[in-house]
Amino acid sequence: MRRIYCEITSRELELPERVERIVSLSPAVTETLYMLGLGEHVVGVSAFDVHPAEARKKPVLGSYSTTNIEKLRALNPQLIFLTSGYQRKLAAQLSQLYPTYVVELPVSVSSIMDMVVKVGLVMNEQERARLLAKEMLSTLAQHVRGTQIARRVYVELDLGGPVTFGAYSYITDALSIVGARNIFADHACEWEKPDFERVVELDPEVIIYEPKMFRPKTLGEVLDMLAARGWSKLSALSHGRVYVTPAPYDFLAHHGPSFILEAIPWLDTTIHSNFDDG
Fold first, then answer.
1. Do 75 and 30 fall into the same domain?
2. What's CA 152's distance to the chain center, in Å?
3. How far is CA 89 from CA 64, 80, 141, in A?
4. What is the Cα–Cα distance from 117 to 133, expressed in whole angstroms?
């Protein structure tokens, strides 16, 4: 048996050399497990584990903060993965029943790579994890921009209501990497309900909107919504720089490896398009 210490739960886990039955209630970890070639060992997920498509075929045990204990007992996992923050209470509950490893909710892009390596260590797949982290680092290096031109960007996600992000968010960090500045980057928070009047005062050059998961919106619908707020004269709207994130699933709200491999290249290209200086 291997001994793995989880800093967040302050518990030492005893795990076999190869973990065969995994319940992952963290979408980011689930995607990581599949990218490490371990998807066949995932026996249960949450309703929000949609990356990759194969994960959607696994038994669903609950949401971010709840799980069906009877279904969990039937699966008899050797290991449960969760994320800190919104899953902290659930982690405390499940760690009393099964070995539970909690990864940290990322506040930076580098935290996402750190998560990948940690999952690899827990799963005894260190080499695969470091190769994946290298691929992520290589992709990231292609999209690092200087700070000479920092586009003013407003990001809004529908998470059951409008949400934007402050200093303690990997989204804010990603914007900085690709040569942009979140207009709320100086707010000492991870996320907050946006102050619409303040958005008008700060006049973002680019607006990025992510619809609620499973409820996609067209660009036209988003433009109508923003116009109804009285934002028609904002620089982003008047210059046609409002963008809707792709796919019907979490894109920026998902902090698995694909955030670096797919979302950051998309942010870089999107934010800097439609400017005369390129």
1. yes
2. 22
3. 11, 14, 36
4. 7
- For every residue of 141-166, DSSP letters joined together read HTT---SSS-EEEEEEEESSSEEEE-
- Looking up residue 99, the CATH number of its domain turns out to be 3.40.50.1980
pLDDT digits (tens, 9 = 90+) for 87-146: 999 999 999 999 999 999 999 999 999 999 999 999 999 999 999 999 999 999 999 997
Our count of domains for the chain comes to 2
Cis peptide before 52 (omega within 30 of 0): yes
Q: Which amino acid is at 211?
A: P
Residue 22 belongs to domain spanning: 2-128
Query: 3-class SS at 35?
Result: helix
216 assigned to some structural domain: yes
Calpha distance 47→135 (Å, rounded): 28
For the segment 257-277, what is each residue's pLDDT rounded down to a tens digit? 999 999 999 999 999 998 865
- Determine the residue type at 95: S
Residue 27 and residue 30: Cα distance in Å, rounded? Answer: 5
Closest among 210, 217, 169, 174 to 192, alpha carbons compared: 169
Q: Which residues pair with 24 in a beta bridge?
A: 45, 81
Q: How far is residue 34 CA from its own chain's centroid?
A: 16
Residues listed for the chain: 278
**Which tokens go with 24?**
């992952």
Distance, in Å, from the CA atom of 30 to the CA atom of 46, rounded to the nearest integer, reads 9
Tokens 């690092």, residue located: 144
Q: What is the DSSP letter of 246?
A: S
What is the rounded CA–CA span in Å between residue 192 and residue 164? 6
Token pair listed for 234: 């904002």
